[in-house]
């Protein structure tokens, strides 16, 4: 015979949705921190010139020169058309790949930043003689290698016969950004984690846009992609002011030579992007005006 339930009997209540959600989020965060920050391969990463993949000046020089030479030769050589049935799946796969890689890099480097025991000011200004080791430099290395993977962008433009998209801005950006990333690692450059997160985030948006376009969806926020690219350069200069403050009022920041190259490169890109943005917007406005005149 069952005992009757009294007012003093404990009542078992099911877990509340908010509590379950919080637990799941904590588990997800712990998993991400392990796989993207605390995994031994990441936690104990070391950039060693001559041993780490891509760490020698010869590799860097050969990579950039090969990219420029192949781009020039292919752009001047008549190539057979692959057709959309072949080119579109390749472009979609490439865009999806770089979308996912950029997302992982943005999340991984962000988690590495918030996980460091030292003050966040050290992310902006590494102490002098900081060794290129640990999670932040692991993601810098992945970012560096991903820029070589982005050379495929240029190949796809050439194969698609879209020569008008093969601009000086495109080739200059793809060729020089590899040098910039190499200097991040080789000089233990201060401020690079901020640049990595912002650039990877912009690339998440950009390659997602490209992916949608190649599968037949034309988002109306194309201009947002260019605006985000411009905004990241402006933001980098604003944060650089803080880095320079730390550098000149403290004991100095690591990798200031690399930062100088980075600053000049970003300034040139900002000027080129603003010019591109202005010309593209002006051409679009002119097309609208001409269309109105016809009617």
TrEMBL record:
Protein name: very-long-chain 3-oxoacyl-CoA synthase
PANTHER family linked to this entry: ELONGATION OF FATTY ACIDS PROTEIN 1-RELATED, FATTY ACID ACYL TRANSFERASE-RELATED
EC number annotated for this UniProt entry: 2.3.1.199
Annotated GO CC locations: endoplasmic reticulum membrane
GO molecular function: fatty acid elongase activity
GO biological process: fatty acid elongation, monounsaturated fatty acid; fatty acid elongation, polyunsaturated fatty acid; fatty acid elongation, saturated fatty acid; sphingolipid biosynthetic process; very long-chain fatty acid biosynthetic process
Location(s), subcellular: Membrane
């Amino acid at each position: 015979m069952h005992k009757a339930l009294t007012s003093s009997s404990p009542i078992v209540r099911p877990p509340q949705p908010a509590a379950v959600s919080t637990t799941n989020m904590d588990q997800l965060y712990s998993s991400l921190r392990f796989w993207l920050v605390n995994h031994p391969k990441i936690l104990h990463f070391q950039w060693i010139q001559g041993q780490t993949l891509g760490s020698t000046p010869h590799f860097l020089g050969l990579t950039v020169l090969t990219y420029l030479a192949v781009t020039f030769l292919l752009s001047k050589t008549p190539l057979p058309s692959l057709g959309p049935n072949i080119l579109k799946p390749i472009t979609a796969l490439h865009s999806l790949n770089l979308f996912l890689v950029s997302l992982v890099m943005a999340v991984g480097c962000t988690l590495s930043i918030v996980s460091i025991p030292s003050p966040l000011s050290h992310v902006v200004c590494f102490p002098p003689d900081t060794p290129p080791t640990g999670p932040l430099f692991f993601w810098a290395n992945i970012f560096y290698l991903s820029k070589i993977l982005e050379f495929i962008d240029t190949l796809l433009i050439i194969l698609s016969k879209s020569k008008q998209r093969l601009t000086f801005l495109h080739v200059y950006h793809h060729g020089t950004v590899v040098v910039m990333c190499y200097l991040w690692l080789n000089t233990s450059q201060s401020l690079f984690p901020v640049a990595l997160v912002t650039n990877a985030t912009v690339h998440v948006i950009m390659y997602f846009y490209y992916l949608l376009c190649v599968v037949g969806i034309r988002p109306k926020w194309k201009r947002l992609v260019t605006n985000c690219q411009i905004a990241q350069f402006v933001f980098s200069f604003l944060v650089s002011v803080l880095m320079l403050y730390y550098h000149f009022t403290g004991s100095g920041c690591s990798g200031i030579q690399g930062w100088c190259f980075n600053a000049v490169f970003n300034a040139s890109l900002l000027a080129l992007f603003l010019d591109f943005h202005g010309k593209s917007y002006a051409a679009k406005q002119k097309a609208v005006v001409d269309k109105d005149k016809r009617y």
